[in-house]
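Posting this for the archive.
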Amino acid sequence: MKKITIKFSCFIGLSFLVIGCFGHEEDFPASWQSSYEAVIMNRAEFETSVATLPSQDIIKSGKIYIFDNFLFISEVNDGFHVYNYQDPTNPVPLMYIKAPGATDLAIRNNILYINQAIDLITLKFNFQTATFDFMHRNRDVFPQKITPDGFFTPVNSDEIIVNWTLN
């Protein structure tokens, strides 16, 4: 038992010695730093950023959703393309739901639940007019986004990470 305690103490001591060698971000090896830079919005701008826009070209598609006669295609970290999907051989673009930081959605009873970065927002969908009304925002439901290569980026309490750019 005494040998295990001594070995463990040596391991802990060496660990602190190695950690002490790195004091600043620039001291860390490049492999310990992200290749991405955060795209940040302040809370006030973020909360007013959800909008319906005319249809747009798909640039970086994510998940797809079909609800009734509508097709939703995620534009990763930016929003959702909405199509009339009555004829699956010829989807007709209807609009774009701009929601910076959005990654996912769920639909129930004509209500869209969107994961917009760290918040959960709800939009009511009107099928007759194919329009949305903003209903509610639940703040800080999800953690801040991490980089695509797995790093955390510290931000101020009034800042939200909505996307990443490659350095």
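The chain has two domains: 1-33, 38-166. DSSP finds two helices and eleven strands in the chain.
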